[in-house]
Structures are given as C-alpha cells and as structure tokens.
Amino acid sequence: MSAPNASSDETPTRVWQEPGGPMLVEGPVEFVREDGTTVRSDRPVVALCTCRRSRIAPFCDTSHRRRVRE
Ligand code: FES
Fold it and tell me: Whole-model pTM?
C-alpha cells in the first residue's frame, strides 16, 4: 500500500521518534484521518502524537510529558 499522494522526489521525507514522545516529520504535512478528513501543518517539523493523550490529535500537545501520580 502506498501513501496517499506519494511523491517521487529524490530526497526522502525524514521521520524520527523522540524517546517517549512524538514522531517528528519534516513538514509541511497533510495528515489523512481514518474518516478521510485531512488536517495540514505548514511547520518545518511536525510532531505527531504517539501516546494518544493529545487534545489536538493527530499533533502532539506535550501531554506525553505529564506523569500520573501513583
Ligand atoms: S506524543 Fe506528545 S502528546 Fe502524545
């Protein structure tokens, strides 16, 4: 399966994982949700939430930094 609107550019898009945090993607990014709607970010680096705690999903809002009291 290929990504929607996959590009044939020579330079690959760089994606990397912050330890315990978001997935960082070189922008701009157009994110396609499960329902087919899209959300766009024109930032040079876009942080995608991987912890599922973000209130602005699919983007990271730093909620992954909060610790739960034991
Ligand atoms: S990874 Fe940062 S809020 Fe989820």
Answer: 0.80
Domain boundaries along the sequence of the chain:
15-66
Q: What angle do CA 2, 60, 31 make, to 5 degrees?
A: 25
Mutate to test the pocket of ligand 1, among 55, 64, 66, 67 (most ligand atoms within 8 A of CB): 64
Compute the distance between CA of residue 70 and CA of residue 62 in angstroms, rounded to an integer.
20
pLDDT digits 0-9 by tens, 45-64? 999 999 999 999 999 999 99
CA of 16 to the centre of ligand 1 (A): 14
Q: Would you say the CB of residue 53 lies under 6 angstroms from ligand 1?
A: yes
